[in-house]
Each structure stands twice: as C-alpha cells, then as structure tokens.
Write a structure and sequence with these properties.
Shape of chain A: globular
CATH class of chain A: Mainly Alpha
Strand order of the largest sheet of chain A: 1-2
Oligomer: homodimer
Low-confidence stretches of chain A: none
Largest sheet of chain A: 2 strands, antiparallel
Mean pLDDT of chain A: 93
Radius of gyration of chain A: 20 Å
Order of helices and strands of chain A: HHHHHEEHHHHHHHHHHH
Strand content of chain A: under 5%
Structural class of chain A: mainly alpha
Number of strands of chain A: 2
CATH architecture of chain A: Orthogonal Bundle
Largest interface: A-B, 43 and 43 residues
Helix content of chain A: over 70%
Number of helices of chain A: 16
C-alpha cells in the first residue's frame, strides 16, 4: 500500500516520462515500430524514472529535465533487459515474449543497441552535458559488471565481495545515478546529491539481491520473467555463495558437482538445500542491511512527505 | 600511392586519435582489458577518423575536439563491427579472431555495448552537445539500417532503391556525419559543412557498395574478414539485385531457388553468373557514380592541397 501512495504521488510526471519515451522512439519503419511496441510490454514499475522524479521532488521542483533524464534511464534499463534476454535465452518478460524469442537474437542485439543510442540521443537534447556524461560513465560501469558476471559464470569459488562488486556495477550504479541526477536537476547541494546517490546505490544493491532471490524461490507470474535462469546459466548469487561457504569440504564438492550438471530435479534439490541451510534467509538479511544504510543516507533536511516516500520505496524492495 | 600521401598528411593527428581511443577504454578489470586489446587488431585504415581530420584541415585547423570526435566515430564503428560479427557468425576480422569466436556471442554483445557506451562517454567530454546529438542521431539511423537489413534477409524481391536506403542508413550516415562534424569543429560555414556531409554520404554509399562487391569476389586476406557471408546470410546486395533484375522470369526463379539452398558450389556458381551477366560491373559503375557526386560536392573554396586529398580519398574507394 505504501508503494501505491508513492506511485500516486508521481503518476502525472510518470505519464509525461512515458510520452517522452514513446516520442523519442517513433520510427518510420513499420517492422521496427512493431518491435519497439513489443518492448513496451516489458515495462514494470519504472523504478528508475520514479527515483529520478522522487529525488527531484525531495530536493526542489520537478522540471522538464527530470522527465527527460527519467526517460533516458528507463531506455538504458530496457536496453539492458533486451540484451540480458539474449544472454539468458529467456522467452518471456512480463506481459510479452522476448524480442529474441519473437525475432531472433540478431534483431534483439540491434534493437538493444537502438535503445542505447536513443537514450543518448534524448539525453543530448538537454542544455548541459552533465547528465550525458554521468549516464555514459554509468553505462560503462554497467557493461563492466555484465562482462564480469559473464566471466565468473561457473566459477564456484566466487566470494561475496566479488559478487557485491559485480552487482554494484551492473545494477546499483544506474540506480545511484538516477537519484544523483534527480537531485542535481532540482539544484540540490552537492552534499544532498551525493547523499541521495548513496541512498540509490544501497537500494540498488538490495534490489539486485532480492531479484536474485526471486530467481530462486519467486513466482514466475509476479516476477514477470522466466525463473531459475541464474542457476541454469551457472550465475553465482548470494544464497549459493552462502551455501558453499557454510558447507564442509566434502559437501561443498558435492554441491559444486551438482551445480554443474543440471536438470530440473537438481534445481529443486539445490533450492531446497538453500532454504534448509538458511542461505535464502542470509541473503535477505544482507539485503535488509543495505536498505537500512540507504534509509540512513537520506538527509533529514529534505521535504518531509517526499523523504518518507523515499524511505517507503526502499522498504518495499524487501517485499 | 595517393592514399599513402593522404595518410602521411594526417599521420600525427591519427596517432593522437589512437591515444585518446586507448585511454578512453582503459579498464581495471584484466579480462576486459584483454578483450579490448583484441578489438585493436580489427583496426583498419581508420577511414572515419581520417575523414573527420581531413574535413577539419580542409576548412580550417585541426583542434583537440577533432581528435575526440574522430576517436568517437572509430569507437562507434568498432562497436558495429563487434556486433556485426555476432550477427554474421564471423570468425576472423583483420589480424585477429572475432570476439564471438574467442569469447562467445554473449561477451561480444556486451563488449559491443561497452564500445557504444564509451563512445558517448568520450563525446560528452566536449563543451558542446552538438557532436553528441548528431552522433546519437546517426547511431539511431545506423541501427535502423541494420534492422532493415535483417528484416529483408532472404527477400529476393528487394529493389535497388530499398538497398540504397539500407546502406544509406547503416553506412553512409556515419561517414557523412564524420565529414560534417570535422568541418563544423573547424568553424566552417554551414554551407561548407553540408557540402562535406554530401561528400561523405556519397563516398559512404560507394564504400558500402565496394565492400559488398569485395564480399563476393575479393580476397580474404586483403579484405581482412571472412568473405561470402552476404550470400550465405541471404543478405541482398547490388550485384544480386541486378542479376535478378536482368533475368527472365524462369531464370529468376531458378536463381532465387539457388540463393536459398546454399553450399560452396552454389556460391561459386552464383558468383560466376554475376560476372557473366555484368552484375559486378554494374555495381562498380553505380559506385563510381556516387564517387563522382561526392567529388563534385567538395567546395572549390576549400584549401587546395586538402581538397585534392578528399578527392583522392574518394577515388581510392573504387580500388
């Protein structure tokens, strides 16, 4: 219910963001237009635009630049979803089939490129280069995170520290930049911008951890995507790292073996064991710690009602 | 030999461009650094940076912004090569194996994204948004061209007009922007900027046509890439469009059939027939016409020696 209040509060601005998003991607080639419409079905809560707008409201007033930056962050996010679905060979995403499932990997690769390109095109319509520069620095980092994640696939000795480094780059960095830029565009002090960046980074870390947990024990419909892909793709996430860490040597070897040779029976057995050994609980607890740090970072001097919403939004990540 | 003179003339500036390129892509993750180094082996004549610099010299002086823009255009080009190699399942590119061949499609997809991202990051270090905005508009267009090309794969009724539209978007648009931005950064008049844009666009059209011819009858070593992929991927190029156009109905049906079911014998038979029916000659002649238009577009008022080089560079595309 808290989350509904947050989205009500920014409903009108989010509508404006959607308009900008759609206008930017208008295309005179019908076949391409159809693919872009399909991507529209992947849209979820628009967390990144919501954070740009909330950070703006918390620090001052929402301006036209906020809506543009918000649309840019959503476009970048969509691009990563399109390419992620290629990497994960995923077939469904929210209310639609993935682009790779419908049109093949090749079209999905180029369509993802097109979303990145339009994101920067839209961003460079702003007067200042600041957002372009920060968004591009962030997408550099996101790509590093994705490449690291790929590099460490099937590496069962991955430490929690390395895992945190990867999700920091691939997920938290963009969410942090959303908050920073939202505050900056409202002409907040550099201290407040950085405080909100810290909020966003920590919320983003928790968000990815919870997303990884959902991939193990969530419900496909609620998550809006094919689950279990992390295990199948040998992508190490926090619960698995925890399990391997608490196991004795011999048991660890057994699980490493089982993680490698996978069928759906193995998958269920691994998930059962993760719950039994408290690995899901551990990951949830760690996510909770990041949410606490996020909430502590929000300056007490921000507008009261919006400040509360930022705190609520962070809490909602744990649900 | 003419071409050597051109590259001698801008050798020092090109060295500067290479430095900026490499500095922008420095990465603290060793595995990623290795992949970036591998992409360095794909570097060819650096046509796009050369055009930025030449256009600049022809209209005034080469400034730091020229080197940055030049590096950006090369980075965008490299990104398209990395993703093209995924789409074409190519194994070799100039002096190295492709990223997809070495590290898989997934790494190649993300590494291509990383090059696009760094291109915009570098571009947004300039004072003005103008280059960012134009480059992004151009990459939007490049993606459209690539998507159209994909959409029309195996469509043997493709007209010459549609083919020209596709190569205009996927290749000529970026080369046109290189010339426009090179002139603009040298503070040329808008008329001169646009004249050079026209030069670049026409040169780019011819360049893609010759590239398509090379894919049919070139030598793999000189071309620096796996040849014959266009036919194998059912990508329609001008010689094939010509052949199907001059055939009688029954012969056309036979070739359309043969274009669909392909082995290396079919391939040789098609190439032989393209030569016999003058389809290669026709495509070459059309490329020659674009080069002529390119050369006519170069303003007579530009600096004499650089003007000559722009004309020579255009001529060299036909060799």
């Amino acid at each position: 219910m808290q989350l509904l209040k947050v989205y009500d509060f920014i409903a009108q601005e989010l509508e404006g963001v959607r308009d900008i998003f759609e206008r930017e991607l208008l295309c005179d080639v019908p076949a391409i237009g159809d693919m872009i419409d399909q991507v529209g079905k992947f849209r979820g809560k628009m967390l990144r635009p919501a954070l740009v707008l909330l950070a703006g409201k918390a620090c001052g007033k929402v301006k036209p630049a906020h809506r543009i930056i918000a649309a840019v962050t959503e476009m970048v996010h969509m691009a990563t979803l399109i390419h992620d679905d290629v990497l994960d060979e995923a077939e469904h995403r929210r209310r639609g089939r993935t682009i790779n499932a419908l049109h093949g990997n090749e079209a999905a690769v180029i369509l993802g490129d097109m979303f990145i390109s339009h994101a920067f095109h839209l961003c460079s319509s702003l007067d200042s280069q600041l957002a372009s520069r920060l968004i591009a620095a962030t997408t550099n980092t996101v790509c590093e995170g994705e490449l690291m994640q790929l590099y460490y696939r099937g590496f069962y000795e991955l430490t929690e520290e390395k895992y945190l480094d990867i999700i920091s780059r691939k997920t938290a960095s963009l969410i942090a930049s959303c908050c920073y830029l939202g505050a900056k565009a409202a002409e907040a002090t550099e201290a407040d911008c950085q405080a909100l960046e810290t909020y966003g980074w920590n919320a983003g870390m928790a968000f990815q951890m919870m997303d990884d947990i959902t991939d193990l024990i969530g419900e496909e419909e609620a998550a809006g995507k094919t689950l279990g892909t992390d295990l199948l793709k040998e992508k190490m996430t926090l619960p698995v790292i925890h399990l391997l860490g608490v196991c004795e040597k011999r048991e660890r070897a057994k699980w490493q073996q089982r993680l490698r040779v996978q069928n759906s029976d193995d998958l269920q057995r691994i998930i059962h064991r993760l719950q039994e050994r408290g690995s899901i609980t551990y990951a949830r607890r760690r996510a909770g710690e990041f949410i606490q740090t996020a909430q502590q970072a929000v300056p007490k001097t921000l507008k009261h009602d919006t400040r509360e919403m930022l705190l609520d939004l962070a809490s909602s990540i744990l649900d």
